[in-house]
Amino acid sequence: MIAQNKIEEGVVISTQKMSSPNPEVAAQLAMVGDVVTTTQFKKGKMHTQVNSIMMGNNTTIMDSDAKKMLVLSESMNGKTYVMKDIDPNEEEVDKFDITKGDETKTILGYECQEYNVAVNEGGVKMNMTVFTTDKIKAQNEQLNKMGSKLEGYPMYMKIEMNQGGMDMIIESEVTKVEAKPIKDEVFSLKIPEGYTNAQAAMEEGK
Q: Where does residue 185 fall: left (phi above 0), alpha (psi -120 to 50 degrees), or beta otherwise?
């Protein structure tokens, strides 16, 4: 495989699979099917679209200069949005126990470095194996929480967790990388018409 060039603007497509050692849980997760994520990136900005038959459509837009993240969700319950700050504080970063692994893996021609991550978030313990490349200069929502502790863009990620007594394994791997110009309006933090504030809707429902 030829060593790949650095990409600072373009599109990354990845596929996520969920499984479980528990046959009943595995059967439920199989109904969700593969989840395809399309990420467009440019100069510290990111636009990620996730399409799932079972979970609906979700769009995440991050702007590292504005330090803001907009999450748009479409489901049977309607269209909602959440606007968040993305500058991770020291307390959040310290939740992650990150060690650099000994392995490397080549994915789509990119040599990737292994990292092992352990975190307990909201009472849920997660162990993650991540392989990142320094050739793709793009934001990533999950890795952004870790601050500068973990470098690069994740080409492969395996998360092992137990949620509500259910053992789950989530594997995500990049299947396509394309360098291409992306229009600035793709990264707009303006809330589209027809979306309601998810936080306000939750408080009304209390």
A: alpha
